[in-house]
Amino acid sequence: MSYSANNTGINKDTLVMYIDMNSFFAGCEQQRHPELRGKPVGVLTYDSPNATIIAPSIEAKKFGVKTGMRLPEARVVCPQIIPVTTHPSWYRQIHVDVMAILNSYCDDVIAKSIDEAVVNFTTYRLVYKDLAIVAKKIKADIKAKYDYLTCSIGIAPNSFLAKLATDLQKPDGLVVITPENIDMHLANLKLTDLPGIATANEKRLKLIGINTPLEMRHSSPALLRKAFGGIVGNYWYSRLNFGEVDLYSHETRTMSAMRTLSRQQRENRQSLESMLISLCTKLEQRMVKQGVFCKEVSFFIKYNDNTGWDTVVKLADPVQDAMELRNYILERVHDFEQTRHVETVFSNNTRSMCVAIQNFVSDSVLQYSLFDNRIKKDVLRKTMYNIKDKYGKNTVRKGSELIEPDVMKDAIGFGSVKDMLMNDDGEVRNKYLLEE
Ligand SMILES: [Mg+2]
C-alpha cells in the first residue's frame, strides 16, 4: 500500500467538532430537580433578593432574562422566574462525564471551559465517514446519561468555524460548515456575531470598508493586516478561509496552583488570604510567560475533616492580573459567608487551597481598546517580568509581595489596582516598582 498524494490530501485538511452545552448550569439544576424542568430558572451564586443571575435556563432566556441581570431586573421581564443557588461540584461531575463521552469517540479532546470542548477528528477521517452521524451519537450518549441536557454541535474545517457553527443553532443544534456552504451561513451574520469580534474590532473593520463577515472573508490578508495592525489580521483571514490558528495555540489547557497549609498558616484568616494571593500570583506569572489571559477561574478549599468548598467563576472579560483573580474568588467567598452568616470558608480547619484557571485567550488577539487603561497595566506587568529575567528575581516586587514575606517568597508580578497610582494623563507610577 502506497501513501500517495491522496493520503496527504486527506491528512492535510483538519476536521474539527465543537461542543457547547446549552444553558449548562441551569440545565444541570433541571436535570437534578425534575420539578424545575420546562420552567424559567435563574442560577444565582448566593440566595439573596438582589443576587446576580449567573445562568438563566433556556426557558428563562425566552422571556429575555440574560446572564448578569439582577434578580429584580429579571422579575420585570419574567415574574415567574425560579431562583436556584449554584452547585459547582455537580456541574464539574457532569463536565467530566461529557468529556468521557467525547473521549470514547476521539483521543484528541480539549476542554475549553466547563461547558465547551473542541474535538480534533482530523486523524479519524477514515474512521468516521460522516461526522454529523458521530455528532448525533454524542448527543444520544449525553441524553442517555443526562436526559434533560442538550448541546449545540458545530463541525467545520477549523475550530473557529466549528465554534461559530454552534452559535448558529441553539438549543440542541447541529450545523456543519463546509467550503461549499460557508458563504450562505456568513451572509446572515453581522461582524459582531463572529466570536472575538466585539465593537472595537467592528469599528476597525468598518474604517477600512469591511461591513460584513462575507466581505471580511473575501478581502485579503493585507487588508485585514491594516485593520488589525499586523499578524492578527492574517489570523482573521485564515480563520474565515479554513486555516487553523486557534486549536493548539496554547499547549496548556488548565493551569493550577495548590498549597497545603501548615498549622501556623491556617491559624489566622490574614495568612489564609495571603496564601490565596500567592496562588493567584503564581498563575499570573505563568499566564504572562505564555502570553495568555483566562476566562474561567475555579477555587477549591479542603478541610481536615475531608469536606470542602468550591466555586467556579466565568469571566466576561479575560483576566491575567493576580489581584483581579483573587477579588473574583473573594467576592464569591464573601457572598457565601454573608448568606450563611458565618465565617466558614477560610476556617482554621483548612488543609489545602487550590486555584485553577482555564479557557485561555491569547494576548495577541485581545481587543485592547476594550480594556481602556488596562493596557498600560498589562505592558507594565510584562516589562517587570522582563526586568526580573534580566536582573534577577528580587530587583522588582509588587505591593502584595510585601504583605507576608514568607508566604509570598515565590510571588512575582505586577498589576494590583491598589498598588498603582495613575495620573490623569495616564502615566503609571508605582511606588513598589523599584523597591530594593
Ligand atoms: Mg454553553
Provide a descriptive summary of the structure in words.
- The strands form 4 sheets. The protein has a 5-stranded mixed beta sheet with strand order 5-6-1-7-8. The chain has a 4-stranded antiparallel beta sheet with strand order 9-12-10-11, covered by helices on one side. The protein has a 3-stranded mixed beta sheet with strand order 3-2-4.
- The relative contact order is 0.09.
- The protein folds into 3 domains: 1-178, Reverse transcriptase/Diguanylate cyclase domain (Alpha-Beta Plaits, 2-Layer Sandwich), CATH 3.30.70.270; 184-249, Orthogonal Bundle (DNA polymerase, domain 1), CATH 1.10.150.20; 254-430, Dna Ligase, domain 1.
- It is 38% helix and 20% strand.
- It is of the alpha+beta class.
- Magnesium ion binds next to strand 1.
CATH superfamily of the largest domain: Reverse transcriptase/Diguanylate cyclase domain
Distance between the termini: 68 Å
What level of helicity do the residues show? 25-40%
Quaternary class = single chain
The first-level CATH class name of the largest domain = Alpha Beta
Indicate the overall shape: globular
